[in-house]
Amino acid sequence: MTSIHIPFTREQVISLKVGDAVEISGVIFTGRDAVHKYLHDGGDLPPGVNLKDGIIYHCGPVVMQDEKGGWKVTAAGPTTSTREEPYQGDIIRKFGLRGVIGKGGMGERTLSACKESGCVYLHAIGGAAQVLAECVKKVRNVYFLEKFGSPEAIWELEVEKFPAVVTMDAHGNSLHQEVFASSQAELARRL
Amino acid sequence: MEDLNVLQSSLVEIIRKTSAEIPEDVHQSILQALEHEKKGTIAEAAIKIIDQNIALAKRKSQPICQDTGSIIFYVDCPVGFDEVSFTETARESVKLATRKGFLRQNSVDSLSGKNDGTNVGPGSPTVHFHQHRESEIKVRLILKGGGCENVGAQYSLPNEKLKANRDLDGCRRVILDAVLQAQGKGCGPGILGVCIGGDRATGYEFSKQEFLRLIPDRNPVPELDALEQDVLKTANELGIGPMGFGGKTTLLGVKICAANRLPASFFVSVSYMCWAFRRQGAILSNGFEIQKWLY
């Protein structure tokens, strides 16, 4: 088990390889469909959101507000990442992201961007919303809540020992490509 | 009106239980999958987290998955049942369950992109009524997340690329193609609901109704039973595994039905349900109190 702390350094990114289990601690930001399209269309990050040497989490959490206006994440698993494939590579390069957390893996363009600028794809367990919500220790802020709605907003989260698996590394390896190729070959033998 | 208040409480409870508690049949098959996976692999670690998550969601009475999904009610009711009042109450129950955090603010206006936070709008929730000549009121609910919905697929046979003709072998080929294309993106290990035949709309509708069946049950139609067992076994030999990490469990179950088709059409509609298989239901009394849980 490898511990990752934010800021996530290039050296540490390079040391990771496909199949490594990691635990992430520090401040991360959620961002999914609306945010990726917005940033890709040239939108600016709101003041306070810093993705450099950071991690973006493909997640639309359930967040409840208490009477004092404080937020609490009550469910926070990953959403399917492949929808961000048209945007992710450019966003990794432009903002200096070191990690992307999601589920289901991503494609060729993201893999190239990971290799080129030093970034990894970290696969969280899809559907494990409660285990992962327990790792969210604090909601520090929220951005674009009105504009995009709660699931699509950027939530600034303090996480501790958030579990994930490296499935795309900075050396051009993708577990998703490997499993697709081997399962395709196995299926061909059974048709 | 008194009765409708009771109905609202019962529906909110059905929503809560569906969102927070995995049905026993599904949990058992996940535990079997855990036993099966090779020890020390990331596939095994994934199922362990899934199992912890199931326990935690139940204990905290919070959503198993943050994507609380499309809200699909199936209501079996006597002739003369007031479907209008039921639907209105279901909509109010969904709003209340959302305020309580059993459902995420999960419904977006497709034109404006706005999410009004209520989960109520055109098509949400969906209520399917089935009248029967009995007095029983049976309400079942499926919450189906978007990740698994996105990997569903509908094939029109013949499909030359997949060498799928209009026969059971052709059906097998396209169903297994859907499994291959889905990989881990639908949060596997998953469960397939399939309809052979129908039109484009009923095909998908019937495929989803297959999720109302229990995981270990067997299809009474011999040809479909054989196809279900074959697809399950073959899919689990492909090595896609939990979350697509590689491993022994790709699917937990396969459920297939057939509907009549037009001579010109031959659709095979495949719906994929994630491991977070949220399906519950209850028999309600005539005063709408929950009498008995169904799963």
Please name the defining characteristics of this protein.
heterodimer; A: 191 residues; alpha/beta; fumarase; 5-stranded mixed barrel; two-stranded antiparallel ribbon; 7 helices; 9 strands; 31% helix; 30% strand; globular; B: 295 residues; alpha+beta; Dihydrodipicolinate Reductase, domain 2; 5-stranded mixed beta sheet; 4-stranded mixed beta sheet; 8 helices; 21% strand
User: What is the strand tally of chain A?
Assistant: 9
Largest sheet of chain A, if any? Answer: 5 strands, mixed, barrel
Distance between the amino and carboxyl termini of chain B: 29 Å
Low-confidence stretches of chain B: none
Strand content of chain A: 25-35%
Kindly identify the CATH topology of chain A. fumarase
Helix residue percentage of chain B = 25-40%
- How many structurally independent domains of chain A? 1
* Helix content class of chain A: 25-40%
Name the strands of the widest sheet of chain B in spatial order: 2-1-3-8-9
What is the end-to-end distance of chain A?
39 Å
Into which percentage range does the β-strand content of chain B fall? Answer: 15-25%
What is the average per-residue confidence, as pLDDT of chain A, rounded to a whole number? 97
Strand ordering within the main sheet of chain A? 2-3-6-7-9
Radius of gyration over C-alpha positions of chain B, nearest whole angstrom: 19 Å
Order of helices and strands of chain B: HHHEHEEHEHEHHEEEE
Number of domains of chain B: 2
Structural class of chain B: alpha+beta
At CATH level 2, the architecture of chain A is: Alpha-Beta Barrel
Low-confidence stretches of chain A: none
**The CATH homologous superfamily of chain A:** Fe-S hydro-lyase, tartrate dehydratase beta-type, catalytic domain
